[in-house]
From TrEMBL:
Compartments, record wording: Secreted
Lineage, highest ranks first: Eukaryota, Metazoa, Chordata, Craniata, Vertebrata
This protein's record includes keyword Glycosyltransferase: no
UniProt name for this protein: HHIP-like protein 2
Keyword Heme on entry: no
Transmembrane spans: none
Length: 370
């Protein structure tokens, strides 16, 4: 029985079968309309929630968001402190803008708006604003900027052209800037709707994402705002799926000629891991984990860095491969294969125990050998 346990950040786990991939979701966060593209997350990396008590100020987020009543009161107090600097006309021109901007801390997409998902950069002082909204705010209320933020770069644009100010508040993914994030149907359809059975257990839904694959082992996105999905097959091929669910005819990467695996069921070798650099949209780097044959036909696992092709954003450049690590594998099973970047910016490599029943290799066995 599944109780109210929600994945951190609202990510949906994936269920991979031999030929199909399904998205396993909790309807409490994503609903049935935004399974692939909705990623609600708060500034504390936690999932959004329905506050127990009424929000009097940021009331737009009282049904689902990132604020409780205490935080709502704190935001309201800051709002009134700022508004003391304005006359009646200033209240009419700027009150709505200032309230909207302050209340984005309560948005279910606060982590995106304030760049909290990137642990290597400081939180934004102001949320990401869409260009039209930002231009209108700067034109009508640029005097409020110094009251809203202590960021010198933003304050220096106080009485200058709003283009630089809005450039600093730009969000690469246009779906996630304010107020677009509120207007996007695929992000907000059924957001926060809870479906429960009589015992209070959350209902689950499955949505088919892809089929016709050969042993899919990984599905990740590049975090570059394109909403593409990259699906890796154990045989050494990575495919690109577009947001509409279609698959590109040519693979993103084809390493079948060097990946060590066999077609028989149960072979645990092959292309086993894929991870994109957190700054992929800038440096074009990604990382792969696969089985291969070394000298004297020694079986190894190899972790390499590659880059995106400059000629085609949907193709990798196989000539860019830079081997980072190779580990000899004493057996053909238990190879592990996961690659993940942590919030600390480091890449973590998960290897198996080396294989064979009872993990017999070495004094303590591979898995226990630190």
């Amino acid at each position: 029985m599944l109780r109210r346990s929600i994945p951190r950040g609202g990510r949906a786990p994936w269920l991979l079968t031999s030929s199909r991939i399904f998205c396993l979701c909790l309807t409490v966060l994503l609903g049935q309309g935004g399974l692939l593209q909705g990623h609600p997350q708060c500034l504390d990396y936690g999932p959004p929630f329905q506050p127990l008590l009424h929000l009097e100020f940021c009331s737009d987020y009282e049904s689902f968001g990132c604020c409780d009543q205490r935080k709502d009161h704190r935001i309201a107090a800051r709002y009134w402190d700022i508004m003391e600097y304005f006359d009646l006309k200033g209240h009419e021109r700027c009150g709505g803008y200032i309230k909207d901007i302050l209340c984005q801390e309560c948005s279910p997409y606060a982590a995106h708006l304030y760049d909290a998902e990137n642990p290597r950069t400081p939180l934004r002082n102001l949320p990401g604003l869409c260009s039209d909204y930002c231009s209108a705010f700067h034109s009508n209320c640029h005097s409020a900027i110094s009251l809203l933020t202590n960021d010198r770069r933003l304050q220096e644009s106080h009485d200058k052209d709003g283009a630089r100010f809005c450039h600093l508040l730009n969000v690469p993914d246009k779906d996630y800037c304010f107020p677009n994030v509120l207007r996007s149907d695929h992000l907000n359809r059924n957001l926060g709707v809870v479906a429960e059975d009589p015992r209070g257990c959350l209902q689950l839904c499955l949505a088919e994402v892809a089929n016709g694959l050969r042993n899919p082992v990984s599905m990740v996105h590049a975090g570059d705002g394109t909403h593409r999905l990259f699906v890796a097959e154990q045989v050494g091929v990575v495919w690109v799926y577009l947001p509409d669910g279609s698959r590109l005819e040519q693979p993103f990467l084809d390493l079948k000629s060097i990946v060590l695996t066999t077609p028989w069921i149960g072979d645990e070798r092959g292309f086993l891991g894929l991870a994109f650099h957190p700054q992929f949209h800038r440096n074009r780097k990604f990382y792969i984990y696969y089985s291969c044959l070394g000298k004297k036909r020694v079986e190894k696992i190899r972790i390499s860095e590659m880059k995106l092709s400059r000629a085609d954003p949907n193709k990798a450049d196989p000539k860019s491969e830079r081997v980072i690590l190779e580990i000899e594998e004493p057996a053909s099973n238990h190879n592990g294969g996961q690659l993940l970047f942590g919030l600390d910016g480091y890449m973590y490599i998960f290897t198996g125990d080396g294989g064979q029943a009872g993990d017999p290799f070495g004094k303590f066995g591979n898995a226990q050998n630190k």
